[in-house]
Specification:
alpha/beta, 3-stranded antiparallel sheet, TIM Barrel, 15 helices, homodimer, 9-stranded parallel sheet
Chain lengths: 372, 372
């Protein structure tokens, strides 16, 4: 079961509100998906994820394939049961990590040969294996296998790679159809920073046909203006009646700009990784909790925030935990940051419903500037 | 407000059941106190501490004095508010950590000069400062300042040190009385492994008069048989109408043997530190979660345990988290171990009430042996 319903399009932008129905529950869009790389969103119990409003989380095929192994997870009842998470899970294809984490890879039509970052063992990852892993994990939304093209990249390479990713996407779909096909399948638009190649990729994928469409190969170091141009040129090429997922994105501003251009789904390690480094997101900008100015600060991280952390703990306490390298520093900081991200998305959904997204966006930038 | 009520003494042992009333709530004895060294019980949110049944926790004067500083905590409303813990807190005197963690110390009648393990700064810790720190933290139970005598130690040194600790205990009481005296004060019996010197220390402290009495200088590497002899010879010398606290103890067996000899209160880093090293306590003995035998084990850590972790997670998942060095490994393992410790104490309290402590103790050892 997978159904996307478009509820409303903002009168003054491409922003849109909708919801996805899955067997494991409903996902309100636009949505942010916390990243649970190794079968856990770092530092977050499932109950805490529900408390901050997570409706779907992301699992990483590459990591779970290598450790503890997808067959092990399948035999133990799937990733949901393994990690005690009952709401939907989207798994990536493994493509991104193969290119960003592993060593000595070679790519050909068949797939990618890589060496594990854990033990150096060699593996061949193909579209068929990627789908098999994601099915074994029991994902609700499965991503087609693709090559994440580095940035910058030459046009010729982008064409060859994107065309191959489209063929891999077709093989991914065929592989999933040979299985029990419980999961929804999303195709991933490549094409680098070339709008016409993005269009070519988007068309190739629509010719195959997917339940949803993603923009891949973004947030790899390109300027945000360029990133937003790709959002603006590529998202309208995707079918309006399917969810549009912007992968690996991004900062709070990236989310606002992505939604403004018609994005429905987002994921990024930014809120969780920043939390572990003591960087907290607030309605008035980023806050580095280790700074000495917070030494005796009895205020919550964000006085405008109603999360568990802001209701119970001072900046001084969070600074102390961070400097003392305490586990709760990561736990509390992650909780706050994910609450911030999910509340930001909720705010955007409400703004779309009320046709005041432009106002929301202006307020967002005005408030963020206050924190500078 | 501090009142100890003895409810019942077991018919077949020295084990006893009672309760302590404090302004921040009731403490059922015998009790185990989780250790919250740096203003947090590592990996445990306050709500989780309440869930596992923690009725009182321990804070460390040495650590909090050095970082973030007791005056800072006082200005922020005290340790309870700082760390969001509403139930009672007992603070140690700092004596133990000065001797175990810091460098280049010298001891004289005035106090102890030590160098911080954090930055090498020099400090003089006296009974008066220890009490001032504990008062600033807002502890419900304050410990008299003492020297924790190393093991083994010569008799002459033990006499001189213990006599000085008794004088420091008197100064601690005087210092607390000069303050607002909101907190209860416990004296700490020293005397090394010499029963007659323990008796001498116990008498000196009773001549001063305290709200409760502790045995210090134990669990420092001595054989458990010797430790239990000290329990047996020293605890009966303490007034029956005051709580008796065995400091820094210990293993589950130590707790059973301590209660059997009349101990009421215990603290130890064992459940929390072991958890972070992947060692889990169960009704059938210790379990090292990293072992390959648990790779695909779908059972909970302890099928006899009703804690949050055992209700929701498999050994295979906990092993995966541990090997992947995930934050939740420490969080979940600590939760389980503290639940085990606190449930063990609860079982002993029930056994005392029913005059079947001997049976409880036999069952405990029978079950623990099964795990070997």
């Amino acid at each position: 079961m997978f159904k996307f319903t478009l509820l409303h399009r903002d009168a003054g932008s491409e922003a849109r509100r909708g919801f996805i129905e899955t067997a494991r529950g409903r996902i309100e869009t636009p949505i942010f998906m916390p990243v649970g790389t190794q079968g856990t969103v770092k530092g977050m119990l499932p109950e805490a994820l529900e408390e901050v409003g997570a409706q779907i989380i992301l699992g990483n095929t590459y990591h779970l394939y290598l450790r503890p192994g997808h067959e092990l997870i399948r035999r133990l009842g799937g990733l949901h049961r393994f990690m005690n998470w009952r709401r939907p899970i989207l798994t990536d294809s493994g493509g991104y990590q193969v290119f960003s984490l592993s060593r000595l890879r070679s790519i050909d039509e068949e797939g990618v040969v890589f060496q594990s970052h854990l033990d150096g063992s060699r593996h061949l990852l193909t579209p068929e294996l990627s789908i098999a892993v994601q099915e074994a994990l029991g994902a609700d939304i499965v991503m087609a296998f693709d090559e994440c093209i580095p940035y910058p990249a030459e046009r010729d390479y982008v064409i060859a790679s994107s065309d191959r990713s489209s063929r891999w996407a077709q093989r991914s779909k065929a592989a999933l159809q040979r299985g029990q096909r419980q999961a929804a399948l999303f195709g991933i638009v490549q094409g680098g920073m070339f709008p016409e190649l993005r269009a070519r990729s988007a068309q190739q994928l629509q010719d195959v046909g997917f339940d949803g469409y993603a923009l891949g190969g973004l947030a790899l170091g390109e300027e945000s203006a360029l990133r937003y141009e790709i959002f603006a040129s590529s998202l309208p090429l995707l079918p309006a009646d399917r969810p549009r997922y912007i992968m690996g994105v991004g900062t709070p501003a990236d989310l606002v700009e992505g939604v403004a251009r018609g994005g429905d789904m987002f994921d990024c390690v930014m809120p969780t990784r920043n939390a572990r480094n003591g960087v907290l997101f607030t309605t008035f900008g980023k806050l580095s909790i280790k700074q000495s100015r917070y030494r005796e600060d009895s205020l919550p991280v964000d006085p405008n925030c109603g999360c568990y952390v802001c209701r119970h703990y001072s900046r001084a306490y969070l600074r102390h935990l961070y400097l003392a390298n305490e586990i709760l520093a990561s736990v509390l900081n992650t909780h706050h940051n994910l609450h911030y991200y999910l509340r930001l998305m909720e705010g955007m959904r409400e703004a779309v419903s009320q046709d005041r997204f432009a106002e929301f966006r202006n307020d967002f930038y005005r408030d963020q500037r206050e924190g500078d």
